[in-house]
Structure formats: structure tokens, C-alpha cells
Design brief:
With about 220 residues, the chain is an alpha+beta fold. The strands form 2 sheets. Strands 1, 2, 3, 6, 7, 8 and 9 form a 7-stranded antiparallel sheet that branches. A two-stranded antiparallel ribbon has the order 4-5.
């Protein structure tokens, strides 16, 4: 069942990125074209598969104003044929207030950070499958399932704190944020092996080099 669900998230290839990304107007949501589907997490059985997407804000002075990786970890529940999901977003510093609330004052998280999520967007509470039309609403629960599974999904959703806490991450660039996300998922050694093979990153300088050096990529 997990594999069938993951198959719904069509992975995007390197050629997709090369051909598609430069032509898109920002803000860009990669789930319009596909998903970043990772290998199962090491040493965890049954398999847990990370599925991610990236949202970019508008361009300001030749720089992306904001960015957020959203990651869902999908795994089969041991006692039944359903799929469990948990999610996190890795995000750049907040630079302005959330217009959806009436709070005043400085941004709550003026630094790169990670936070729990329950949906692919702020308006959607489902991580079980890709965003869909409004006619196919899903809130991440399923009343058609065994009652205990349905109640557990409701409990887990209500227990997920999507506003606070947020955990600062030691990144200063979008490249560093992406590398931090990979290191968080797979660990330091696989991340170092992956990134150290990139000659472009090896020649990087400034803040990008600092971010990667902090992760031990060049050790």
C-alpha cells in the first residue's frame, strides 16, 4: 500500500529541473510538476519514505525572498493496511508578519528554522497524497477506515504544533538549508558523500561554503 501511495508522487528528474525551473515565474511550487522522492530512511522497518516539495517566494533584488522545503515521511502502520504520515518544513527566516493573523510586532522566527506541518500548504491539512481539487477535500483523516485508525489520525493531527515551537537551523543560504534538510533526514556521512562529489559546491565560497563546512561536507 505504501508503494502505491508513493507512486502517486511523481518524482522529478534533474532534466525536469533544468528544463522547467528557469521558465517558471516565481512564486514557484514544484508540486505542479512533480516531487522530490527520497530513498527510504536507513535502518527503519517497515520502510519510511520522505517525499518533499519546494516553494519559493518572489524575487527581491535578484534574490529569492523566501523558501520552504516541505517534507512528509510516509510509512506503513504495523497493525493495519493504512499509511502514517508526519511532516516538517525547513524554511528561511520570516521577514514579514503572516497576513492570515492579526498579531503585531516582529516576525516570530527571524532565522532559518524547521517546524512541524500537517499539510502541503497552510490551507491544506493532508500529507497523505498530493494537493487535489477543492472538490476532493481531505483533512488527513479517513472515516471509512477502522474507527481506531481514524481516531488516531485525529489525535495525531491535533497534537501537532504547527506554529510553535520552531527549531533554529544553522544555515544562512538556500543551498545550506537544502543540505541541512538532507543531513537531518539521512545523517552526516551520506550527506557529505553526496555533496562532496559536486565540483561546483567544492568551489563555493562565502556563506554557502560556511554552511557546508558547518555540516562537515569538506571534512
Amino acid at each position: 500500500m505504501l508503494q502505491a501511495l508513493v507512486d502517486d508522487f511523481r518524482p522529478i528528474s534533474e532534466s525536469d529541473l533544468d528544463l522547467t525551473m528557469p521558465k517558471q515565474k516565481l512564486p514557484l511550487r514544484l508540486w505542479d510538476h512533480g516531487w522530490l522522492v527520497g530513498n527510504p530512511l536507513p535502518r527503519i522497518k517497515p520502510d519510511v519514505v520522505p517525499v518533499a516539495t519546494l516553494s519559493l517566494g518572489e524575487m527581491v533584488s535578484d534574490h529569492v525572498s523566501s523558501a520552504a522545503f516541505r517534507v512528509a515521511f510516509l510509512g506503513e502502520r504495523k497493525n493495519d493496511a493504512s499509511v502514517h504520515s508526519e511532516g516538517w518544513r525547513f524554511e528561511t527566516a520570516e521577514v514579514e508578519l503572516n497576513k492570515n493573523n492579526n498579531s503585531e510586532g516582529p516576525p516570530a522566527h527571524p532565522y532559518f528554522h524547521a517546524q512541524a506541518i500537517i499539510g502541503w500548504t497552510r490551507e491544506n491539512s493532508c500529507l497523505l497524497h498530493p494537493p487535489h481539487s477543492e472538490a476532493e477535500e481531505c483533512d488527513g483523516t479517513d472515516g471509512a477506515l477502522d474507527n481506531n485508525v481514524h481516531l488516531e489520525r485525529i489525535r495525531a493531527k491535533s497534537a501537532t504544533l504547527v506554529q510553535h515551537p520552531a527549531f533554529p537551523v544553522a544555515a544562512q543560504t538556500l543551498t545550506g538549508l537544502a543540505a541541512t534538510m538532507i543531513a537531518t533526514i539521512y545523517g552526516a556521512q551520506p550527506t557529505s558523500s553526496l555533496l562532496s562529489e559536486d565540483t561546483g559546491l567544492a568551489r563555493s565560497a562565502g556563506l554557502i561554503h560556511e554552511d557546508l563546512e558547518r555540516l562537515g561536507v569538506f571534512a
